[in-house]
Amino acid sequence: MTVTYFITGANRGIGFQLAKQISADSNNVVIATTRSFANSAALQDLNRPNLHIIEYDVASPLEKMKQDLVPIEEYAPNGVDVVIQNAGIATANQKSILETTEDDLAKHFAVNTIGSVKVYQSIFPYWSKKVNPETVKKFIFISSSVSWVNNFFPMLSSHYGPSKAALNLVVRHIAFDHKSSELDHIKNSIIVPVHPGLVTTDMSKEALGDYNFDESPIPVLKPEESAGCIIKIIDNLEPKDNDTFISYDGTRVSW
Ligand SMILES: NC(=O)c1ccc[n+]([C@@H]2O[C@H](COP(=O)([O-])OP(=O)(O)OC[C@H]3O[C@@H](n4cnc5c(N)ncnc54)[C@H](OP(=O)(O)O)[C@@H]3O)[C@@H](O)[C@H]2O)c1
């Protein structure tokens, strides 16, 4: 039976690799989002009948995001089983809190935190639609190691880190909300934030400036490796994983 995935920010970086690798299995249906069809040549070139592309900007008003998802009714009449909220931004990140600006904070919270909330709100009708005997419902939010409060990661991240920390708390609240859902498949769903590793994408190159990836003290992953790790995590999720933070290598992190 078919498992249907919804992946945001899938035109490049980790999101593209997720869409590519998951849609390589023709049993899967993948709905991949891009902010603009014009920037989605890599996705279009995959030319797979089980891969559908939707224009969707997580910084848009909620009503516009809901409207953008209407084609899912045709692409996945039984709804969506697995959501991967991957879209995010990290710019000019190497700053102290004294140096960070209101604009830095506003932009990062708008996409990484509030955008993620709106992804949850807009996809919920499709994600909660029907039980699929092939899989429990799963919702993955791509977070980051720089979001951890309890296990603070010593790296400058003055606005990106706080925006992902706030995202983690949103995830905890969603897990709490699901406990009282009237729908058993939502009550039993698994929702997790995942750190994808330090990955050589446009984002990390821009966010980390002159960081020496070749001599990094922490492992550096290619986007395809990170996506492979995330897929393995998703495939192996168990009910006890709900509301836990998982790192790309499968480590459960105290966040
Ligand atoms: N790379 C790392 O080392 C690393 C480490 C920790 C966490 N992460 C997280 O991993 C996720 C993917 O990052 P990446 O490294 O693959 O970054 P990336 O290569 O910069 O890709 C980011 C993706 O997000 C999309 N996006 C940005 N703003 C958006 C918006 N307003 N609405 C919809 N989509 C939007 C981008 O679309 P456009 O092409 O239109 O800009 C792009 O598809 C992010 O959540 C990031 O925070 C990455």
UniProtKB/TrEMBL annotation:
Q: Which CDD domains match?
A: carb_red_sniffer_like_SDR_c (cd05325)
Output a single Gene Ontology CC term carried by this record. cytoplasm
- InterPro entries linked: Fungal_SecMetab_SDRs, NAD(P)-bd_dom_sf, SDR_fam
Pfam families hit by this protein: adh_short
| GO MF term set | oxidoreductase activity
Write the record's keywords in alphabetical order, separated by commas. Answer: NADP, Oxidoreductase
Family per UniProt? Belongs to the short-chain dehydrogenases/reductases (SDR) family.
Name used for this protein in its record: NAD(P)-binding protein
Q: What is the lineage of its organism?
A: Eukaryota, Fungi, Dikarya, Basidiomycota, Agaricomycotina
